[in-house]
C-alpha cells in the first residue's frame, strides 16, 4: 500500500523537473527552469503571495476558535 501512496508523489517531483513540450507530454531531459519561472514570473509570485496570506488567515482563525472549544 505504501507504493500506491509514495509513487504518485515521486512521479510529481520527477515531472516537475521535466521540460514541457507541445507534441508530447514531456521532452527528454531535465531542467530546473520550471522552478526559476515560479520565482521570476509576477503572476506566479502573486499566486504564491495569495497562498501564504490565506494560510496565515486560516491559522489565525483556527487559533482563535480553538480556545472556546478547549
Report the average pLDDT across residues: 87
Note the run of SSEs as H and E: HEEHH
Total helix count?
Answer: 3
Q: How many strands, which pairing sense, and closed or not: the largest β-sheet? A: 2 strands, antiparallel
Oligomer: single chain
Structure description:
This protein is mainly alpha-helical and 70 residues long. The chain contains 3 helices and 2 strands. It has helices spanning 2-16, 33-40, 42-69; strands spanning 18-20, 26-30. It has a two-stranded antiparallel ribbon with strand order 1-2. Helix 2 (33-40) crosses helix 3. The longest helix is centred in the C-terminal third of the chain and has 28 residues, at 42-69. It is flat. The relative contact order is 0.07.
What order do the helices and strands come in, and which of them pair?
Layout: H1 2-16, E1 18-20, E2 26-30, H2 33-40, H3 42-69
Antiparallel strand pairs: 1-2
Amino acid at each position: 500500500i505504501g507504493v500506491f501512496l509514495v509513487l504518485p508523489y515521486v512521479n510529481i517531483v520527477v515531472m516537475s523537473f521535466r521540460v514541457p513540450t507541445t507534441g508530447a507530454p514531456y521532452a527528454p531531459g531535465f531542467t530546473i527552469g520550471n522552478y526559476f519561472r515560479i520565482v521570476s514570473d509576477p503572476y506566479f509570485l502573486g499566486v504564491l503571495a495569495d497562498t501564504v496570506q490565506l494560510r496565515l488567515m486560516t491559522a489565525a482563525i483556527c487559533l482563535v476558535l480553538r480556545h472556546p472549544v478547549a
